[in-house]
Amino acid sequence: MSELKLVIGNKNYSSWSLRPWLLLRRHGLRFEEIRVPLYTPEYAERVAGLSPSGKVPVLHHGPLAVWDSLAICEYVSEQLLDGRGWPADPEARAVARSVSAEMHAGFQAVRTYLPMNLRGRFRWRSPGPEIEAEVARITGLWTDCRARFGGLGPWLFGGFTIADAMYVPVALRFSVYNTPLEGVAAEYVHTCLADEHVREWCEGAYRETEELPQFEARELWEPMPGGYSG
Fold first, then answer.
1. Residues 129, 40: one domain?
2. Residue 224 lies in a domain
3. Residue 220 domain-assigned?
4. How many CA atoms lie within 13 Å of 96's alpha carbon, on the beta-carbon side?
5. Confidence (pLDDT) at 218
6. In Å, what is the CA distance from 38 to each residue of 27, 111, 121, 219?
7. From CA 85, how far away is CA 165, in angstroms rounded?
8. Which residues form the GST N-terminal domain (predicted)?
């Protein structure tokens, strides 16, 4: 049994669970995956014995529990990857930490109006200026990072970093909701969708059977045929 255990929620809905899971998978770290479906009668009882915060994700490394997606990624980088979770260049590393923290703390409109739902596919209909501004900010960040630091690979800072782990769920949301994108932003979404580990997660989401109405957002969005094509 692996010394590392990662407790996650539903793959279809839990964007925060995807972030550390993806970092671990991208770096080939072996871990036991413990899935606790969200908002079920058994959730609180099951997660109480696994997570100090009562939320997912949480990483167990031997006797140590680390919760919160960004904290888990930082811990994995420091303790298991010799710092390779972040760019090696100090300037790039500082920017990567900044954009990751901005994702971690902000973009509430994207979270509210574009709920994670990988099995869905919806026709874009802008919910208003707040989300338009957040989409513009996110795509501007992607474009700036790629222009300044992305010359050695297809990710935000060339190679895959924690910053990508933070933004892959956003790219998946933009794909699901058919958010109009062009240029660097559209290319970055393609990079995310083409990644084998992202596809593995999405295929897991497709195999799930739980449906959470609060994340379906049918009252806001017009469903389209199909969905993630894995």
1. no
2. no
3. no
4. 28
5. 56
6. 27, 17, 21, 21
7. 10
8. 4-84
